[in-house]
Design a protein that fits this description.
Layout: E1 6-10, H1 12-19, H2 23-39, E2 45-46, E3 59-63, E4 68-79, E5 82-92, H3 95-111, E6 117-118, H4 123-136
Parallel strand pairs: 1-5
Antiparallel strand pairs: 1-6, 2-3, 3-4, 4-5
């Protein structure tokens, strides 16, 4: 696979949601996050202002097998040549609830730049990425 073009960051609450995922869905979510690192601008469905929310600059992706909806935002921010992608929420696929949560968290980003958590700093992701690298012999171009 090609090199990462995006740096994935979590809202702190989305990180907690990620950490609480059970093992039956974590691989599916991790595969999606790996795709985000490479093609975040190409995947996902652009959101509109529905359910009394303002998510017009966000996207959603439904992981149907896992029954999960992920709402994320591709920004114009660039850090070390990588464009930033914020994951706002990882929730069961209840659209109205997911969008309300994402809307609330997005409001924080409008004024607080320090609210995000860099994905690489989460222990669970480091462990899973290391295990994936060992298992696949770094075929995916992943950094250990």
């Amino acid at each position: 696979m090609s090199e990462s073009r995006f740096e994935v960051r979590f809202d702190p609450d989305a990180k907690d949601e990620y950490d609480s995922l059970d093992n039956s869905v974590i691989d599916i979510v991790d595969n999606f996050i790996e795709k985000l690192e490479i093609r975040a601008d190409e995947i996902g469905i652009p959101l509109q202002n529905k359910y009394a929310t303002r998510l017009y600059d966000c996207k959603e992706f439904k992981l149907r097998k896992a029954g999960i909806r992920i709402v994320f935002r591709v920004t114009e921010e660039i850090v070390d040549v990588l464009q930033i992608v914020y994951i706002l929420t990882i929730q069961r696929r209840d659209a109205a609830r997911v969008f309300r949560i994402a809307h609330k968290r997005l409001a924080w980003y409008k004024g607080l730049a320090d609210r995000q958590v860099y994905l690489g700093n989460t222990e669970r992701w480091k462990e899973r990425r290391h295990a994936s690298t060992k298992r696949h012999g770094n075929k995916k171009g992943l950094k250990p």
